[in-house]
Write a structure and sequence with these properties.
alpha/beta, Rossmann fold, 7-stranded parallel β-sheet, 3-stranded mixed β-sheet, 12 strands, 18% strand
């Protein structure tokens, strides 16, 4: 495979795993984030405010694919996400690079049954409208674009409502809680599977102008917690569901976790991503849940 220049926006877990995967394939990889940081061998880091369109466009010169894995602070989406996405889109248009964006299921709104990529954007929340608008603007641009949509993340260093709120208690054997229905089926997306889907979509000629769902494992919060406890050799989890009043009291002083409130429907009802199209066209499958959990626990090799 010939070497190509790839630009990754965002140095979180998904951005880093994508960069590492591309570098392992021999690509020339640059990753961009606001603050300087050390990088593994074979990956160049540039500290840059991505909304600096001129600087980002210069950096994108000669790049074949831009991967946008950036995400502003959760409570700053309406203010910070649109200009960030617009800058990345403009850099793709000017440079001629393909654009692969990491997104989620917020734009679909509340859906009865499994979510497929053919569903229209029908957001019911502020953050859902932000996501839907960014995708619609990408489709209307001159760039070749595609989008990979994931559910709640699992994996080493992955951040999600579950990993922040519930996981520590499950591992330590302490009583713990969750905001939503403990027995509703929910998709959990492994960060490494996200990276694999992003890379596969970037290589597939039929990827452009449409979205893909990252293959995920479907388990309830209770079933996931029990399996994690088993693998961690922890006691059987003691789980409770937070009431609305308890959740509001818990998040009253935290503007970031308070933003989860408008997305509560994702946890009150089944939330399942149908990824059959991705599996068939991109040949990416979900990693077995036990392997994902071992990575969450830091038990996997490497």
């Amino acid at each position: 495979m010939s070497q190509a220049k790839k630009l990754i926006i965002g140095a979180g877990p998904t951005g880093m795993l994508t960069a590492q995967g591309l570098a392992a394939e021999g690509d020339e990889v640059t990753i961009v984030s606001r603050s300087p940081r050390a990088m593994p061998a074979g990956i160049r880091h540039v500290a840059l405010d991505v909304t600096d369109v001129a600087a980002l466009t210069r950096l994108a010169e000669g790049v074949s694919t831009i991967f946008n894995c950036a995400m502003p602070r959760y409570d700053r989406w309406p203010q910070e996400f649109p200009p960030l996405a617009a800058a990345v889109l403009r850099a793709a248009e000017v440079s001629g690079a393909d654009l692969v964006t990491l997104s989620n299921a917020y734009g679909y709104g509340q859906v009865a049954g499994p979510m497929t990529e053919s569903l229209p954007m029908a957001p019911q929340t502020v953050k859902g409208r932000v996501r839907a608008t960014m995708w619609e603007e990408a489709l209307a641009s001159r760039a070749r674009v595609t989008e990979v949509r994931a559910s709640d993340y699992l994996g080493r260093d992955a951040l999600s409502l579950y990993t922040l709120m519930t996981l520590p208690g499950v591992i330590s054997g302490q009583a713990t809680h969750f905001q939503g229905d403990l027995d509703a089926l929910h998709s959990w997306t492994y960060t490494l599977d996200v990276a694999r889907t992003l890379m596969a979509a970037s290589r597939f000629d039929g990827a452009w102008g449409r979205a893909w769902h990252a293959p995920s494992n479907d388990l309830s919060v209770r079933a996931l917690s029990i399996r994690i406890a088993d693998i961690a050799a922890a006691p059987r989890p003691i789980l409770t569901r937070l009431s609305t009043d308890q959740w509001q009291a818990l998040t009253a002083g935290d503007p970031i976790t308070r933003e989860v409130t408008e997305m509560a429907y994702l946890y009150d009802l089944p939330c399942v991503l149908d990824s059959r199209a991705t599996q068939q066209a991109l040949a990416v499958k979900a990693t077995a849940i036990d392997e994902v959990i071992r990575d969450v626990l830091g038990m996997s090799e490497g």
